[in-house]
Design a protein that fits this description.
With about 450 residues, the protein is an alpha+beta fold. Helix content is about 40%, strand content about 25%. The strands form two sheets. Strands 1, 2, 3, 4, 5, 6, 7, 9, 10, 14 and 17 form an eleven-stranded mixed β-sheet that branches. A six-stranded antiparallel β-sheet has the order 13-12-11-8-15-16. α1 packs across α13, α1 runs antiparallel to α14 and α2 packs antiparallel against α3. The relative contact order is 0.14.
């Protein structure tokens, strides 16, 4: 019975999607007639003008920036006014709501038929005898103290070193000394940059590594399926843990667990003024960076593909999901054995409007590769590596080392949420038209 329901649920979701899509079109045609095409064109034009206005606001200063910002605000307002004066605003809103419902149900239907991604093999382990944990008391606004992580870890038999935030300390050297002294597990309660430094030592010594989600964003912990709301639950790995084997990214000889960013963002965050006034500094620097008047001109080479002069490049340890807004910035796997590469190149307002096409935008390059080379017309380039600002000699080489890191995680953890597959109306229609009788016969 449960198998039959699991088969029928995606089909019913697909039927709702098809009915809602037909309803969206019907509402437009029934109440707007041939003007429905004009409504769609006006809405699309409004979005394109808004995107162009935002581009002008970003790449110009002075009166042109003000004009671009005003255009970006005025375009959608003008579209709404036109709909109201035509007495068709409610038609547009109802049709849009039905279309949103159609897309939502369609993706739910496709998710119900998509095979689950292969899970990273995990094996149970005996508790470590000499775990060594490094904790940053400032991370995450003081989560180490707020959740009493030191006291709880020591009660479980761990040796804990709390960093002295008044002076700079070499966490990699601390980890190596602990390994030399007999530690059989290394762990970190801190940000992703600190996690990467200690993870490199753990991989080098073939020791299990433990992540405690005490940072601000905890991207690495998210993709490991750890509890980000209560970092103390990560300590359960000390008593009831399992081991995963995951990949590590390398940028030259430095390890990264999340990503390395090049281009405009990396240049902005390295400005001395950025920490004091992020918005003003960004607006001041972006025009020259986006138009290539300032900053290095990048060239990215990966698996025989070259991306010339992108304004921004992101190289990630395993690819991020880009086909689902809910999954943006999320990796379903950390053991696929490939780097993800995302490059953005927008040179004019028309290309900025083209970015509305999402992952199919011509200015968006998405690749996977075992090795990526980022070169530039400068001797060095600014790079953000797991949130740490660096300047590296060119060319910069990124590579992946499959299954290089042993990660110990709690057996009982939230897990990694699956993103929904991209919309495929042909597949949704096929699911919707499959009869219940045929589905039942297929199950038998």
């Amino acid at each position: 019975m449960s198998d039959s329901r699991s088969v029928l649920a995606p089909r019913w979701a697909a039927r709702v999607a098809v009915i809602a899509a037909i309803g969206a079109i019907t509402v437009l045609l029934l109440f707007a007639g041939f003007d429905s095409l004009l409504l769609v064109l006006v809405g699309a034009a409004g979005l394109a003008v808004t995107a162009a206005g935002l581009w002008w606001a970003l790449v110009h200063t002075g009166p042109v920036r003000v004009l671009g910002g005003a255009l970006a605000l005025a375009a959608p307002a003008a579209v709404v006014v036109l709909y109201v004066r035509a007495g068709l605003l409610w038609v547009v809103l109802v049709s849009l709501a039905l279309w949103v419902l159609a897309v939502f149900c369609g993706r739910v239907a496709l998710a119900g038929t998509e095979a689950a991604p292969a899970r990273s093999p995990q094996r149970p382990l005996a508790p470590p005898r000499h775990p060594y944990l490094i904790m940053n008391p400032r991370s995450g606004g003081g989560k180490v103290g707020r959740f009493r992580l030191r006291e709880k870890a020591e009660a479980l038999g761990a040796e804990v070193y709390v960093l002295d935030v008044t002076r700079r300390q070499d966490v990699a050297a601390l980890a190596r000394r602990a390994a030399d002294a007999g530690a059989d597990l290394l762990g970190v309660a801190g940000g992703d940059g600190t996690q990467a430094l200690v993870a490199a030592v753990a991989a080098e010594r073939d020791l299990p590594f433990m992540v405690i989600s005490a940072g601000t964003r905890n991207h690495f912990a998210l993709d490991l399926g750890l509890d980000r709301d209560d970092p103390s639950k990560c300590l359960d790995a000390l008593t009831d843990g399992v081991e995963l084997r995951i990949d590590l990214g390398f940028i030259n000889d430095r390890v990264f667990v999340n990503n390395a960013s090049f281009g405009a963002y990396a240049a902005v965050v390295q400005s001395p003024a950025y920490r004091d006034d992020k918005v003003r500094t960004t607006l001041q620097m972006l025009p020259d960076l986006l138009t290539h008047e300032n900053g290095p001109r990048l060239a990215v080479r990966a698996e025989g593909v070259t991306v010339e002069q992108p304004q921004a490049v992101l190289v990630s340890n395993n690819p991020y999901r880009m086909d689902d807004p809910a999954g943006l910035g999320h990796r379903e796997r950390l053991d696929s054995g490939v780097l993800g590469v995302l490059g953005v190149k927008v040179d004019n307002a028309a290309q900025a409007a083209g970015m509305l096409r999402g992952r199919r935008a011509p200015g968006l390059a998405q690749l996977t590769a075992r090795e990526v080379v980022v070169d530039a017309d400068a001797d060095t380039v600014p790079v953000g590596v797991d949130g740490e600002a660096l300047n590296l000699l060119t060319p910069v080489r990124c590579r992946i080392r499959p299954r290089a890191l042993r990660v110990r995680v709690p057996r009982d953890r939230p897990g990694v949420s699956r993103g929904r597959p991209p919309m495929d109306w042909h597949q949704v229609r096929r699911l919707a038209l499959t009869t219940i009788r045929r589905a039942a016969g297929h199950d038998r």
